[in-house]
TrEMBL record:
GO terms for molecular function: cysteine-type deubiquitinase activity. This is OTU domain-containing protein. Residues 1-38, 54-141 are annotated as: Disordered. InterPro entries: OTU_dom (IPR003323), Papain-like_cys_pep_sf (IPR038765), Peptidase_C85-like (IPR050704). The lineage of its organism: Eukaryota, Fungi, Dikarya, Ascomycota, Pezizomycotina. It comes from the Eukaryota.
Length: 268
């Protein structure tokens, strides 16, 4: 009996080693099948051990499920290797998990897309709020235009849109001079033109399109020749100021109008 129990302990130890190796090599997809296989191997070994002990004690054998082919008269396996081979032959193939048993992977939400969508929604809400606020505000520009149109109509004038490109003051003066038939050439008794200014006037292709070049040059020359009347109102040197008038798209204002009016005046 002691010899048989010793053999049983050795077989149990060997089986536990094989079960451990099987479970270590299991994956998520094969774990369930391997666990079932390990339980079956353990159950079969336990039943065989019980049968061997009963045979040794002379007890009647009870029918054991799945052991109909077990021959108790045969000699016990000589070593662990033969037991392992027998168990491997009797082992059923590991069932593959069905599609329903396979774990479903939840798709992670795209945080960047969520942020962009949230930002777009916030911008749309802000635009809608701004539009609603603007609709409830007083339209000062519209009211002003309505009043000015009434005055223009009374005086026989009309409003002409000018491109706000920095040359708008000078372009509007050039257009009015051209529409009035006065031309862009100033009265020589009021201003002495520089050669470059004269060249600008002579090369104007169309007063409505590039006439501002001539008006700018005349304005700069008039300020330069009457610097005592203008220099005190400048925040930069005179030559820098007049150079901006001639060569850049610097906006004109009150100071420039003060030079345009006398510089391009006709007659007394």
């Amino acid at each position: 009996m002691d010899e048989l129990l010793s053999k049983h302990r050795k077989e149990q130890k060997d089986l536990q080693g094989r079960i451990t190796q099987k479970k270590k090599s299991a994956t998520k997809k094969t774990r369930r099948g391997i666990n079932d296989d390990c339980e079956r191997m353990q159950r079969e070994l336990n039943e065989r051990h019980q049968a061997e002990i009963a045979q040794l004690n002379g007890e009647p054998l009870e029918p054991v499920e799945a052991l109909e082919d077990l021959n108790l008269d045969d000699e016990a396996p000589a070593d662990t290797e033969s037991n392992e081979n027998k168990t491997s032959q009797d082992a059923e193939p590991i069932p593959k998990p069905t599609q329903e048993e396979q774990p479903t992977q939840t798709k992670k939400p795209n945080r960047q897309k969520a942020r962009l969508a949230r930002r777009a929604a916030e911008q749309a809400a802000a635009a809608e709020a701004a539009a609603e606020e603007a609709a409830n505000q007083t339209n000062y520009r519209g009211d002003e235009k309505e009043v000015m149109d009434a005055v223009f109509k009374k005086l026989g004038l009309k409003e002409i849109e000018v491109n706000p490109d920095g040359h708008c003051l000078y372009s509007s003066v050039a257009k009015q001079l051209d529409d009035s038939g006065l031309g862009l050439r100033p009265d020589p008794s009021r201003i002495v033109l520089q050669p470059t200014t004269q060249s600008r006037i002579d090369t104007v292709a169309s007063p409505q399109h590039d006439g501002y070049r001539a008006v700018r040059a005349v304005t700069a020359d008039f300020i330069d020749q009457n610097k005592d009347d203008f220099e005190a109102f400048m925040e930069e040197p005179l030559d820098v100021y007049t150079r901006k008038i001639k060569l850049t798209a610097e906006w004109g204002g009150h100071l420039e109008l003060q030079a345009i009016a006398p510089g391009l005046r006709r007659g007394n």
